[in-house]
């Protein structure tokens, strides 16, 4: 099935024939559904800190920053913004020329409110010799949209979200990437240095670098900090093979076809980062300055909880490794693991002392993450659950609906009764108590991938996504869920989302 030419192709991508064989096997077997114990709620599994506790966590985080620990903000930013403009692309190809749908009407009625309005107007004048106002008065709505989306105009239809202007300020409009510059200065600075890392596509890396070159000095002066901004691309070795309906390799002109492995591939990029604490937040979840204080507060709260919990885990691990612990201290460790980290094992009561301590060491000696959770408002996507792991333990997991057997009435009810939603608001610790980095791919659950049906040049194919970055890719981490206010979750899924009050 794999030819000599295929082996050469695989070698160039850094993918072994064994990995391809395993992926093709997965197309046949599929991925198992995860067994749920229940949804994580504020009654069980989701912390809801009091005002006194919030003050404590803020203090802990400020002290941690002042101590000069290595902190970094990691922003997945490689996806194109084309889905943001799906409705406008449809308008361009429609057999009518005036705004007809509610979406189209809202866009044009409020066009002057968008942060990119000035740039778009300049492009209309350049390409059509007319302003936006003049084009609309003539009824030439499509020329305005064309100038927004096409490469001869602003090219917003092909650019990543990070390079789109989101918010308007007196001095200048800001891209969503720049809003992350600001956030980084407000909660992730140590010794006056803000480390930011963006994962970008190869096509857009130069444009991101150009943005940094143009705007970095402005924000350094504004916040009296120095930025250390780095980029990485999704590794070709994380691409997954495409398959035909019969699970044989999909080929074009005799060549194997591979597809990006989804955001779960970024665990490799995260693994390359050297930092003590890493913030993770999606590129489009930003707000203007007037609404940032609450976001900043809760980012610091999540980080403060992480530092406190990590110190406890470190202290227990040092105690275990010293061999000088009492029965009471072992009981204390069990309580911490089961109560604070919500990692439970029914077999623990049957373990001998030596086996028990080894078990505790294994479970405590893992990467740790604290995840902000907002109240469920019907958004599509993942949520916090207590789920069974391959080793029989139950732990906190962020699950997507695709991982749950909706044909199972009990599992479906658990999913539908979930009270919270995952806004991708994570703070991670990726080193052990000796300061050594964990090898993050070792903590991925390979059974948590996903198969979808796509097409390429009119031919149907099966595609495979790797375990998601905050789902199965972090399955074997210690996890803490914390309730955060809804105001901290403001994604931009469509261009009209920029018209919501929170983005004005």
Concise structural overview:
The protein is of the alpha/beta class. It has helices at residues 4-13, 17-29, 51-66, 86-93, 102-109, 117-128, 132-137, 141-149, 176-187, 205-223, 267-271, 292-322, 327-340, 353-364, 409-416; strands at 36-39, 46-47, 71-76, 165-167, 174-175, 189-190, 193-200, 226-233, 240-241, 251-252, 255-256, 258-259, 277-281, 368-375, 383-388, 394-399, 420-421, 425-429, 450-456, 459-465, 478-483.
Question: Any descriptors?
Answer:
alpha/beta; 504 residues; globular; Spore Coat Polysaccharide Biosynthesis Protein SpsA, Chain A; 10-stranded mixed β-sheet; 15 helices; 3-stranded antiparallel β-sheet
Task: Explain the overall architecture.
The protein folds into 2 domains: 4-78 and 186-490, Spore Coat Polysaccharide Biosynthesis Protein SpsA, Chain A (Alpha-Beta Complex); 89-159, no CATH class. 36% of the residues lie in helices and 19% in strands. The protein has 15 helices and 21 strands. It has helices spanning 4-13, 17-29, 51-66, 86-93, 102-109, 117-128, 132-137, 141-149, 176-187, 205-223, 267-271, 292-322, 327-340, 353-364, 409-416; strands spanning 36-39, 46-47, 71-76, 165-167, 174-175, 189-190, 193-200, 226-233, 240-241, 251-252, 255-256, 258-259, 277-281, 368-375, 383-388, 394-399, 420-421, 425-429, 450-456, 459-465, 478-483. A hairpin with a 2-residue loop joins strand 6 (189-190) and strand 7. Helix 9 (176-187) packs across helix 10 and helix 13 packs across helix 14. The radius of gyration is 25 Å and the shape is globular. The mean pLDDT is 94.
